[in-house]
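subagent[fold] <- orchestrator: predict structure for attached chain, return C-alpha cells only, no commentary.
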Amino acid sequence: MQNLSEDGSITEEKVVDFGSIPVDTVAEKSVWVHNQSVKCQTYRVSLIYVLNNVDRVFNVSVTSAPVKPRDSVEVRISFRPNIAGQAFTDYYLVDDTAGNTYRVTVSGRCFGPEVSLSKRKLKFRICKNVDEKRKAVINIVNKSAVETTYQWLLPLSGQGYFQILELWTY
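subagent[fold] -> orchestrator:
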C-alpha cells in the first residue's frame, strides 16, 4: 500500500479472497503494509462494520503497528467459516499517522458435507407374531470431501422395539 492521499480519502483498495474452504477449517493469507515515506508511520487496522463479535469468521493479526521508513509489516488474516453454504465478506480500514486511508475487502465461501438418506421414513406393519423381526436398510451417503458425523435420536427409555444393529462405512 502506498501513501497516495493528501485529503484523507480512500486511495487504494486491496481484495483478499480466500475462495471456498471446508466448514470449521482455518485458512490464512497475508497483506503487506509498506511505508513509502521517509518518516516512521503507525498503521491501524480496524473493522468498518462491527455487527457482533460472536459470528466473526475473519481475524486480523495486527491492529496497530509502527513501520519504519521504507519498511513493511505483515498483516495476517485468518478465515474460519462456521456455516456451510455461506459466503462471508468483511471490510477493514487501514489508516496511518499521515492521514492516508486504505480499504481491505476480505471474502470467502464455505462448503460442508452433502449428506443424503436413501429413505426418509421407515414404515413397519403391525406384526401378529411378536417374535418376528424385520429389517430395513438406510444408506447415509456423504457426497463431499468434508467429513461429518451423524447421530440417531432415540427415546430416553432406550431403543424400545427398534434397534440399530450394524453400521457400515465405505
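orchestrator: received. Logging for downstream: The first strand starts at residue 10 and ends at 22. Residues 1-9 have pLDDT under 50 and may be disordered.
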